[in-house]
Design goal:
By secondary structure, this protein is α+β, with helices and mostly antiparallel strands. The protein has 15 helices and 26 strands.
Amino acid sequence: MTTAIADYALVSDRHCAALVSRYGSVDWLCFPRFDSPATFARLLGRGAGHWTISPVGIFEAARRYVEGTMVLETTFRTATGTAVLTDALAVGRDSTGHQLGNGSPHLLIRRLACTEGIVPMEITFDPRPEYGLVTPILCPVEGGLASRGGADSLVLTSPIPLTPEAGGAYACPVLEAGAVASFALHWSTPARPPARMWTQAELDDQLAGTVASWRSWSEPHQTYQGPFRELVLHSGRVLQALSYQPSGALIAAATTSLPERTGGERNWDYRHTWVRAASLAMGALPVAACPDEACDFFGFLATTAPSLGRDRVLRIVFGIGGEHDLTERPLDHLEGWRESRPVRVGNDACNQVQIDVYGELLEAACRLSDQLGDLDDPTRRFLLTCADCAAERWRDSDHGIWETRGETRHFVYSKVMCWVALDRAIALADLLGAGVRVEWWRQVRDEIAQAVLRQGWNAEVGAFTQAFGSTELDASVLMIPILGFLPADDPRVLSTIDVIENELTDEHGLVYRYRAQAGVDGLSGAEGTFLPCTFWLAQALAMAGRPDRARHVFERAARHANDVGLFAEEVDPVSRELLGNFPHTFSHLGLVNAAQAIAEAECQVGAGALPSPRSEPRTPRSARPAPHSP
């Protein structure tokens, strides 16, 4: 039976990620980068490799992250004893604070300790590099095994002898109380220093150093004291784990092709970085992590994104090293999670036209204006060009925030983001050296506002809709108050919030992005409810002066974290299982931003200060990063 998505936990060295099941199996690992071909990929195919360390027979498993870290601890309880398995991707020496992960040795450590009684264990090491295409030869060497086959060099340190068999190896040791064994998988290539065996003392030192390094980052930076504090701080660590240390890029998720509906075709590779994450991250990272991470992410985008072709199109997604070519292809040899085909690597959304991205970049720059200081000339000129492109292209149709694969449309969210681009550019005019452009920007900004109010609002529906002239609902319009296009207490915004909560949710109150059955996205089948949009609803309610209702919606979404506090992208409306790629950055960003909005709303209610009614588009009261505490 396929392991449920919620049964996985993440470990990361800020270069790559592994997913470990509650049954002690590493079913996903991509060395040396998040987007590298997987060494273990049983998550997506039964024969695609795994590394399992688990008790024999019936057992109970309880998991937690070591406090202040992303080091995973799983406690196995059997009828005869207890064993604790600790999993970590080593972050390396001199990797403290903001250098977390800088010295990654590309080493997965698994420490097994019997703490009580006697525990028979089963160990199966079954590597299958390149998403399962390679079945390597495993050669016993002193202290473990060496793998031959494919481009990767893998060396397994094992204090317990393993018997090679049919491309894998196994052992069935019996551990007694006090016994400790540390295993490690070291990755390399012929172009790097060779992978090697590690002594038990070295592995103990690497594991202890990894715990200390995570704490050296989290303790001074995670100072949020508002509502849902533990969820917010843990989300901050998850976001740090999903950031690529060498570049500052923030990936959308650690996986590819986990489906939005079991057995369906909505399976995408999310191991890349999306421009639209910028505006959400600039609000969340200073709250749950540190403004420095926000600046690193913006710096990555400001360096990577400035490539506008003759048609002035800005790419919406990039590789974590800044790559522009993310050509999508299927892996036909993999059957997918619960037979959900195709399994894809790469993402053809990189070739889509989405005019919202200009707004997301300028919103990010505006939020970070106090930290950025004087912009270098290339960044300044790039941001000027983004504003100009928004002014020139706002009338164009596009594929929208949800990257539909049908015909382009005039999506309301895209128009609002062009308004945001110009509004924030006007606010940054002095920093950008905008000069005479400002008057033009103001004129176009006002034209966009009038178009959205005239064509995006549907009085019969009682809401802003998905596209101009449409009657379809879309949760992306919840960003209208969040981005300050209209105040949250505007009657049209309040009505939109109510309509979405009443008509675009499942029976449990979780929000759909849109009704996929309407066929707007050009794909077959439906999808689950979308956790980020549910957090957006909570955020919009808080901004509208309804903190009690916001708390209710927030808690409704937060209940769908797994046992170690991780969120996927979606929830199956029938089974309530987590769906989609995992862990999902947008879900954790949404949680942080909603929690902060609730904190601010509760402060306002406590002080007797509620927002006064307004009806015209406006700039938010502050474009600066939110404070760490309410």
